[in-house]
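General statements about sequence and structure are easier to judge against a single worked case. No coordinates are needed to read the tokens, only the vocabulary itself. The sequence in question and its structure tokens are set out directly beneath this paragraph.
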Amino acid sequence: MIPESLKVYILGCQGSLLIWCGDGNVFLRVIEFIMSRSTRSKTIAALNLSEKFGFKEKDKLDSAGLKSKVQKRKLDDDPKSGTDNNKSKAETKPKRGKNLEIDENEVKLNKARESSLKVEETSKDDENEVKLVKAGKASSKVQENCTTKIEDIEDCCNIPASPSKDLQEKVKWFPHNWEKVLSNIREMRSSQDAPVDDMGCHKTMDPKAPPEVQRYHALVSLMLSSQTKDQVTYAAMLKLREHGLTVDNILKTSDHDLGMLINTVGFWRRKVEYIKKTSAILKERYNGDIPNTVEGLIELPGVGPKMAHLCMTTAWNKIQGIGVDTHVHRISNRLGWVQKATKTPEATRVALESWLPPKFWFEVNHLMVGFGQQICKPVGPKCSDCLNKQLCPVGRTSKGSPNKKKKSEK
């Protein structure tokens, strides 16, 4: 364990570890290591930097005094030491209970440290300090002489584990070759010519409108997109924007007129009801703006987890989860990106977020939606044109659509 008198701070970076002793006037580098956080045992290098900071003489004094003091206490506490030595000690040294006589080196040490260090010295602290001094002399003896382990220092200072270690501890399963698969999807989507690229919800907002109105456009677009192709949703949004797509204007519009504007989208009658109710809530609770949390968005009528996560990204530029629609749900199961087959998009979202690093959450929806619109289609996927044909379980075994049976087999 680290002595209570020793305050430990992490002052360096890239694996440099500094110990700040007591009053902050004396810096002593104990361990400088560059090591793999996954094994913790590849390379350990120790270096005493007291000379660099101008405390060379004082460090020698500290080391000499501490060694002398520890040796004296070992002799006093050793029951097997010779009787002659014990007698000579009794004759020459006055008895002071458990306290030890301070020799000349200790006097020098105390004088040198009197103005800076006011720490009660105990035998345990002395032994630990001697071991810390020894650790700066030879890298080969660091692990033997220094009882302060790296794990102890991390626990004491609440240093978070490295990302790679965290990931290995928390995630025990990863899809095979998932990074290569994702890279191939990026390459196949490099042309950015899928319907979602030109007519997705991020393209339906009026760039000239105020920010809160643009966010309202993003929300309404996502509500219309359920069970509807991007082309149809985009056309309906153009009609709404021409009519005047603001909270106040939609509340003034009759259900019939609103229905005539969006009657090309799927389940339009239900969506008319959802849009009117949502608009009333936004006016009453959010002053015409939309909620800025996933939880707040999900509370709105007709808004589910997929819409909420996509809306947070599109409207608020905040990534709090993966937006999983029918394309992401289908492709994730085909590629084996879920450990067990999932039946709902929400279950797929939970499965993906359990292993996929958050830095990929932003792009995975957009990539997969376009990929699903052009190549990995629901019916008749173009496996022959897919770069992941040999990496995908469906691509390796299926000559056509995994959901389409041959007429001869019916």
In short: The chain is about 50% helix and 5% strand. The mean pLDDT is 73.
